[in-house]
Amino acid sequence: QVQLVESGGGLVQAGGSLRLSCAATGRASSSYTMGWFRQAPGKERQFVGAIRGSGASTYYADSVKGRFTISRDNAKNTVYLQMNSLKPEDTAVYYCTVGRFDYSTNYAHDSIYDYWGQGTQVTVSS
Asked: Which of 30, 50, 78, 103 has the fewest Cβ atoms within 10 Å of its own Cβ atom?
């Protein structure tokens, strides 16, 4: 089992920045893919981005590309989501996830991930 604990959410004005963190404990492996999804009220869960175990490759949803950056510290089993130039439409609960794989043909499918955090709220005011 892998446990995930997110932190760093909050309220920010449009144009501002936040950094989310997600620490993995338990049987976490540095070879696993780690990612972020988000869910706004009344909407389906949406892929934000993912990073492979080596950290060499990252993948982003078009809606956040160029504004969000995923990174990881394998020594700490932690993944980060740096969010810049935030917009009101980024408001959502953000979930960290881990998949017991390194490579996928489509990181945006939430069904391929194995473990999920409890979520952290991000609210962007206009």
From this structure: 103
